[in-house]
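Internal tracking record. Fields below are filled automatically when a chain is submitted to the structure queue. Please do not edit lines marked as system-generated. If the sequence contains nonstandard residues, flag them in the REMARKS field before resubmitting.
Queue: standard
Priority: normal
Entity type: single polypeptide chain
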Amino acid sequence: METTFKNEVALVSGGTFGIGGVTALAFANKGASIIIAGWVENEETLNLIKDSGGEAFFVKCDV
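SYSTEM-GENERATED OUTPUT FOLLOWS
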């Protein structure tokens, strides 16, 4: 059985770079809308998600 996250929202703290960025992309590839929380905004991860048809937002915060 394949797990999907369609109609779900994933909040990924530290999702702008590295493991967090890969995690955000993985959730997006399974259909989740993504909220990336982090200190430094990185347009690359957001654009990768949006270019593939996904929804992504960035929230600047210090977790």
